[in-house]
Design a protein that fits this description.
The complex is a heterodimer of chains A (about 110) and B (about 110). Chain A has about 110 residues and is an all-beta fold. Chain A contains no helices and eleven strands. In chain A, strand 4 and strand 5 form a beta hairpin. Chain A is globular. Chain B contains no helices and eleven strands. Helix content of chain B is about 0%, strand content about 55%. The termini of chain B are far apart. With about 110 residues, chain B is mostly beta strands. Classes of the chains: A mainly beta (about 110), B mainly beta (about 110).
């Protein structure tokens, strides 16, 4: 059974720092991995999608990497800003599971001015 | 282009009642998935519909059901509400659900009293 874990559960950093969020999964037979952002009480905003054949994806200050063999992904945020404060979630999809996503518990990020 | 629309945004129901939530996916998307989000359990997959057929189902009791219409709009229904059904219900749409990016709506906050 696929399990997705995100460490740390919470992170507080001063503005301007570069930071890394971690996501690990137990079954490497994934279709893709997606990173989302969630603001309190709101829906999820898709940040990056990495297909299983890819190693990384970049969007602006965000860079996500995927190492399928070791069951790990990292989300790198450069030059963090207070507006980056949110909960970051990773999710994997698997073969023969259609569009079902399996989520980690998330990392709650706080960027202090 | 318009995003995923969920209605209503907030609901308060009494134990024992039933409720219907609605999700309109992004135009052209044929896969709609539903998730329940609670502080204790995180995001849990309810079911996925593709071309009006349920393609995948999570581990929820039969009180939770759904359907998809020919225009890809989807509804989920919860009968005989329990206090533990209080949660944020999120809908996600994607082109096909297979290795394609998922986009989420703002969610419906259901409170059962």
């Amino acid at each position: 059974k696929q399990e997705v874990t995100q460490i740390p559960a919470a992170l507080s950093v001063p503005e301007g720092e570069n930071l890394v969020l971690n996501c690990s999964f137990t079954d490497s037979a994934i279709y893709n991995l997606q990173w989302f952002r969630q603001d309190p009480g709101k829906g999820l905003t898709s940040l990056l999608l990495i297909q299983s054949s890819q190693r990384e994806q970049t969007s602006g200050r965000l860079n996500a990497s995927l190492d399928k063999s070791s069951g790990r992904s990292t989300l790198y945020i450069a030059a963090s800003q207070p507006g980056d404060s949110a909960t970051y979630l990773c999710a994997v999809s698997q073969y023969n599971q259609g569009g079902k996503l399996i989520f980690g518990q998330g990392t709650e990020l706080s960027v202090k001015p | 282009k318009a995003g995923v629309t969920q209605t209503p945004r907030y609901l308060i129901k009494t134990r024992g009642q039933q409720v219907t939530l609605s999700c309109s996916p992004i135009s052209g998307h044929r896969s709609v998935s539903w998730y329940q989000q609670t502080p204790g359990q995180g995001l849990q997959f309810l079911f996925e519909y593709f071309s009006e057929t349920q393609r995948n189902k999570g581990n929820f009791p039969g009180r939770f059901s759904g359907r998809q219409f020919s225009n890809s709009r989807s509804e989920m229904n919860v009968s005989t509400l329990e206090l533990g059904d209080s949660a944020l219900y999120l809908c996600a749409s994607s082109l096909s659900g297979l290795a394609t990016e998922a986009f989420f709506g703002q969610g419906t906050r259901l409170t059962v009293v």
